[in-house]
Amino acid sequence: MDKLKIDFKSPSTICLLAGSLVILLATFLPAAKVSFMGISETGNLMSDYGHHGIFHLILVIAIVVMLVLDKKPVVSGLAAAEVIWAIVDIRNVASDVSDANKIVKDAASFGIGFFFLIIGALALIAGVVLLNINAKKNVAPAQPMQ
Questions:
Q1: CA–CA separation, 111 vs 51, rounded Å?
Q2: What strand order describes the sheet that includes 108-110?
Q3: What was the pLDDT predicted at 61?
Q4: What pLDDT shows up at residue 4?
Q5: Beta bridge partners of residue 108, listed in sequence order
Q6: Taking Cα atoms as reference points, which of 94, 57, 61, 95 lies closest to residue 75?
Q7: Is 26 exposed, middle or buried (0-12, 13-18, 19+ CB in 10 A)?
Q8: What separation, in Å, do the N-terminal and C-terminal C-alpha atoms of the chain show?
């Protein structure tokens, strides 16, 4: 079996792995907190938002596997899909917190999972950008036709 090709010194690899790990953590951590009349309740992406965390989990595992297998175009596509999915969930959580605060002022707040989701998505974006910059540097220049 060939050795797996993963360069842990590459900034794109570090960003993609870190972003995947942070999003993985974000799925289990509280994304929103609601407090009303002494009762406090939290919600995370894995159980309270239609099990969206499962899709995050599948996508970040696929990103890491494809990164280890050195399938850079697939990694870019999976990372883009994960960022889009993260944006959907960021919007959902922000909307829920806003709606709860309209009903009862300062009843809802963002949890650490919400901020981890944002940080993870930004890290994935940076990783894809760096991956594509490195891919363009490694392309041989076109030869003139004779």
A1: 17
A2: 39-44, 30-36, 108-110
A3: 94
A4: 65
A5: 34
A6: 61
A7: buried
A8: 42
Per run of 10 residues, the mean pLDDT along the chain (length 146 residues) is 68 91 92 83 80 88 90 90 93 88 84 94 93 72 66
Q: Hey, what are 140's tokens?
A: 């041989």
Count how many Cα atoms sit within 13 Å of the Cα of residue 66 in the half-sphere of its side chain: 17
The confidence score (pLDDT) of residue 146 equals 66
Give me the pLDDT at residue 99, please.
86
Nearest to 19 by CA among 130, 123, 131, 129: 123
Contact partners, residue 94, CB within 8 Å, separation at least 6? 110, 114
Contact 38, 124 (CB under 8 A): no
Q: Are 85 and 93 contacting, i.e. CB atoms less than 8 angstroms apart?
A: no
Task: Classify 38 in phi/psi space as left (phi over 0), alpha (psi -120 to 50) or beta.
Answer: left
